[in-house]
UniProtKB/TrEMBL annotation:
Pfam family, one: Csp
Name under which the protein is recorded: Ferredoxin
Highest taxon above the source species: Bacteria
Cross-referenced InterPro entries: Csp_YhjQ, YHJQ-like
Amino acid sequence: MKTRIQTMLSAHPQPQSLFDQDTLAECIAACMECAQICGACADACLAETEHLTHLLRCIRMNLDCADVCAATGRILSRLTSPDQTMLRAQLQACMTACKACGDECERHGTEMNMQHCTVCAESCRQCESACAALLGRLSESADNSRAAVHPY
């Protein structure tokens, strides 16, 4: 079943060819979901009143990751005249934020049995993986472009 994200990408009058559209749609969805989950986890951490001081770093990581993921999803949704260098940097930043937030939340999920942090860690891992897959496609696309220009 085609998602609305896929439908929107395919409806664009000038679809770009840097990415496979299914991989791109999966990454956009993972980024947007992770942004929402991280925001919700930050809120849940704020409700953990007896552990609030211990969770300050987690809350900060949640909010930073949510912002980076949301920005990444929005940037990836723009198909007109993409800049490969900027896309690469944004995907790497998103992977870095998701790794840091996922590690922090995984620790709280395991050590403090905080289910909201476990869910957040899973979402961060999924987003990190989706960004890595898309980054791999971007590198393949750049390699293919260079080979077409310089076949030797």
